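Reminder to self: tokens first, then the designed residues, so the page reads top to bottom the way the pipeline ran.
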């Protein structure tokens, strides 16, 4: 059985609250007052809230981000040569990077940016 979206989001928010990661909770869309109210609930009250039939959130799929992540997850054919220029920014990929990473497609800056993208 797949957990209800309310349950998943509440569990994630509570875990972030316990780690004092308020920014993550705010990124989920919770206000400070809502976080305080949720933090004061008993386990039974949290369970009831998580199983509520009324959804209190909306899930949005960022199609372009998903497309990029899917493209990254596909293995490059081992015979493909390294690119001279980064696919994302167009900057020259240093020769040393091209030699060390066969089939490289991105400069270091763009690779790090993609890996950190939510």
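Designed residues (118 positions):
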């Amino acid at each position: 059985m797949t957990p209800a979206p309310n349950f998943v989001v509440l569990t994630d928010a509570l875990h972030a609250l316990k780690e004092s990661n308020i920014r993550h909770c705010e990124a989920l869309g919770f206000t400070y007052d809502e976080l305080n109210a949720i933090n004061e609930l008993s386990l039974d009250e949290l369970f009831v809230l998580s199983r509520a039939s009324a959804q209190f959130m909306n899930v949005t799929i960022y199609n372009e981000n998903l497309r990029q992540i899917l493209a990254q997850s596909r293995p490059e054919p081992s015979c493909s040569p390294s690119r001279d220029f980064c696919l994302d920014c167009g900057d020259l990929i240093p020769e040393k990077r091209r030699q060390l990473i066969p089939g490289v497609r991105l400069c270091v800056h763009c690779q790090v940016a993609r890996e950190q993208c939510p």
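The mean pLDDT is 84.
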